[in-house]
Design a protein that fits this description.
131 residues, mainly alpha, 79% helix
Length: 131
């Protein structure tokens, strides 16, 4: 059952990301410097590779979260939610900020990407406690 919970949590995180970045597509593309065509879509943006990598990343994060939760005896919905939120906000988001700062990227990009990490991990933490 643990393996299934990891897959479902990873899917939930991935799905949240799809919604997050659809809503924030225009500001994200502006902040990341992606060239867009006349249709407002990224030029040369048809590769499935980023989506495959995102799916693999979600599986890795959900799997490690599940392992960490088991070791820490996190067993309730509230603790899963708060722990996931903390992982996204205090582990992943600072790393995003460091990478973007050294890459001289706009802080707006950090806020958008860190928001996804924070809320996506919170959702994954919640889902992990459902199963």
């Amino acid at each position: 059952m643990e393996f299934l919970s990891v897959i479902i949590a990873a899917f939930a995180g991935f799905a949240f990301g799809a919604v997050w970045y659809m809503i924030l597509a225009k500001p994200w593309m502006e902040a990341s410097g992606i060239e867009v065509g006349n249709d407002g879509r990224p030029k040369d943006g048809g590769s499935p590779v980023p989506f495959i990598m995102a799916g693999i990343a979600m599986l890795l994060v959900a799997g490690m979260m599940r392992h960490t939760f088991a070791l820490a005896e996190i067993t309730t919905l509230g603790k899963g939610l708060v722990s996931g939120l903390g992982i996204g906000l205090f582990f992943i988001s600072p790393w995003i900020m460091i990478n973007n700062a050294y890459g001289m990227r706009p802080f707006k990009l950090t806020v958008i990407d860190a928001g996804y990490a924070t809320f996506g991990c919170a959702i994954m933490g919640l889902v992990l406690m459902l199963f």
